[in-house]
Amino acid sequence: MRGKSLFIALPLIKVGGIHSFSSSSSSTAFRPFLAKGITAGIKTRNLLSDKRKFVTASRGVLYNGLRASTDSTVRDSLVPGRPTWQQTMLRISDPKKSIPFYTDIMGMTLIDTLDFPQWNFKLFFLTTLPEGEEYTLTPGTQEAHDYMWSIEGTALELTFNYGTDDESFKGYHAGNQERDGFGHVAFNTDDVYAACERLEAAGVTFKKKPDEGRMKGLAFAYDPDGYWVEIVKRSEPNQIKNYFNFSQTMLRIKDPSKSIPFYEALGMKLIRGKNYGDFSNYFLASASNVDESVDYSALSDDEAKSKLSTMFGPVLELTHNHGTEKDEGFKHYNGNEEGRQGFGHIGFLVDDVYAACDSIREMGYGFKKEPDGGSMKGLAFAYDPDGYAVEIIKRGGIDFGDKKVE
């Protein structure tokens, strides 16, 4: 949560995973998810040949022999209160443009709003609901709040600071410039080519169309604020009825041996890791998105990729550009620096914010806002190893002081 009064952030980025595609200026569901911890430690150079030791050579990403010790270590260090990934926050300049883009075009549902006229900002929460599921609550009411702060999955939070819809506003920083950390959000679909034709017919423009660049069959569209929206093909068609489903948030990280254990301690599970030579991608999911009967570390890369594409809820994609972990002075922009604001934070629900923050504090990365800091008590903003803001919110919500819809 938070608008301009507490937090305004924006990411920085190098396009890990698609470094060399060409730029083109040419010219849509919700059930939240999460899980317990695993893995840690990462090697990007010495690839493994035995998938039971962690991954096959084709996946090759993690330290050999750490699975057993890591499982128990992560279990012992899990943040208490059943943390679940609940939101990704982006700042938007005009809700009259952004809300229709994500609802009418990308198929999301507006499930709640929080309006803070005393602080001049308003929050919009959207998610992908299963096709055919009707949402009957009125956003902004206490009933919608109760639903929103109890979900088991992940919503897209769009923050509107009053006045940015004026033509004089210069816009937010959408990321993907030198050292930007935030990369994109993504949606899965059965047919990327057909989906892009549909998007283009709706007036959407593209950074990359499916046949542009060296990576064929995936695309990057622009949302109204210029954020990149990746369009990804599901490996198995007709498994998810929705035309689009919200499928990922991508952040760049400096050192996966620090970032992965951090998010595992927040209840996430590593589903897939892939080494592309000069960068690696790691995909983590929350429990509601995970099949606990599956040993993901024993899957081949193709099997792990297939599991990812059939997940209804989003995953957190962490992109590591090799060598950054060796540069003491290297740091990604986290999206909240003055002049680079756009992406704000990700957020987790917990049963007890104070107990969770006591555990997070021991990790040593610090806090932007302690639970009793500032004007809004009972919620916190921790830092992850890269300095990204991670909101910690009480499951069930608190009295946020918003102007409710009656």
What does this protein structure show overall?
The chain has an eight-stranded mixed beta sheet, sandwiched between helices. It has an eight-stranded mixed beta sheet with strand order 6-7-8-5-9-12-11-10, sandwiched between helices. It contains seven helices and 16 strands. It is an alpha+beta fold. A hairpin with a 3-residue loop joins strand 10 and strand 11. The longest helix is centred in the N-terminal third of the chain and has 11 residues. The N terminus is likely disordered.
Tell me what portion of residues adopts beta-strand conformation.
Answer: 25-35%
The value of Rg in angstroms is: 20 Å
Strand order of the main beta sheet, please? Answer: 2-3-4-1-13-16-15-14
The general outline is: globular
Helical segment tally?
Answer: 7
Q: State the low-pLDDT regions, or none.
A: 1-75
Q: H/E series, N to C?
A: HEHEEHEEHEEEEHEEHEEHEEE
Largest sheet: number of strands, sense, barrel closure: 8 strands, mixed
Mean pLDDT score: 85
Q: What's the N-to-C terminus distance? A: 22 Å
In terms of structural class, how would the helical and strand content be classed? alpha+beta
Number of strands: 16
The level of helicity is: 10-25%
Give descriptors for this structure.
disordered N terminus; 406 residues; alpha+beta; globular; 8-stranded mixed beta sheet; single chain
What is this entry, summarized?
With 406 residues, the protein is of the alpha+beta class. The protein contains seven helices and 16 strands.
